[in-house]
Amino acid sequence: MKREAVLYRKSKDGKKAFYIDVENADSIYDFLKSDEANLKKFRYALDLLLEGRPPRDLYDKENFDKCCEHVTAIKLFKGKKNPRIYCQQYTDGCTKVFVIIAAELLEKKKSEGLTNKEKTIIKRVASYQYTLLDETE
Question: What is the percent of the chain where pLDDT is above 90?
Answer without folding.
Answer: 61
